[in-house]
Amino acid sequence: MSDSLPSRRLPNRDFKALAAEIHACRRCPRLVEWREERAADPPARFRNEEFWAKPLDGFGDPDARVALIGLAPAANGANRTGRMFTGDRSGEWLYAALHRAGFANQPTSERRGDGLRMRDAYVTAVVRCAPPANRPSPAERDSCLPYLERELALLERCQTIVALGAFAWDGALRAIRGLGGETPRPKPRFGHGAEVSAGSWTLLGCYHPSQQNTFTGRLTEPMLDAILARARALAES
């Protein structure tokens, strides 16, 4: 994608304004109902906590050269804590790996305001509300995609996108096309370690750090570390 495209020449990089717009979003009635139901009736271990229960913006370094994209917030994870990939086992895996790779100043992410800082990395998702059974509908995905497009446009230094799972892989390709970028045809298949040039980015595939993948050994710490090392190498090349 050429830097001459309007989507890459925004007049200001106002992440705060975009975040405020995301937080106020109520476009998808099913997702609004679900995220608020989970907050009103949480599991016993979270009964004394105040849930975020709003859509989530991305988190990280606005000058990041690496963006990591997931599926959506978890109902009792990011929907509770107010930060992407925070408050569940997936997030524990991801932020520990980001710390090992030098992208985060600490290995844990507890909630907004806990002192975590990202260096050269930004974490976001295709869908911004927790979906029932972790399955957004195509319409819900498409409703949220403009937010991802705008974040990628604001991340002016970003060169590498890590797609955490097949849903994120598809969403990243759709967002890149929405920004006017050329993507391979036929659509490249997702796989762990898959690597393609798309628009002005290199897109890397990585198995999602879900319990289903980490408990079974489908995704191991060395596998995740290798993807982050490759992402850094690409961003620095």
Can you characterise this structure?
- The protein is of the alpha/beta class and 237 residues long.
- It has one domain (14-236): Uracil-DNA Glycosylase, subunit E, CATH 3.40.470.10.
- Helix content is 38%, strand content 11%.
- The protein contains 8 helices and 6 strands.
- It has helices at residues 15-23, 29-40, 78-81, 89-100, 138-154, 166-178, 211-216, 221-236, and strands at 59-60, 66-70, 121-125, 160-164, 195-198, 201-206.
- A 6-stranded mixed β-sheet has the order 1-3-2-4-6-5, with helices on both faces.
- A hairpin with a 2-residue loop joins strand 5 (195-198) and strand 6.
- Helix 4 (89-100) packs across helix 8 (221-236) and helix 5 (138-154) crosses helix 6.
- The longest helix is centred in the middle third of the chain and has 17 residues, at 138-154.
- It is globular, with a radius of gyration of 17 Å.
- It starts with 14 loop residues before the first helix and ends with a helix.
- Mean pLDDT is 93; it is low at 1-12.
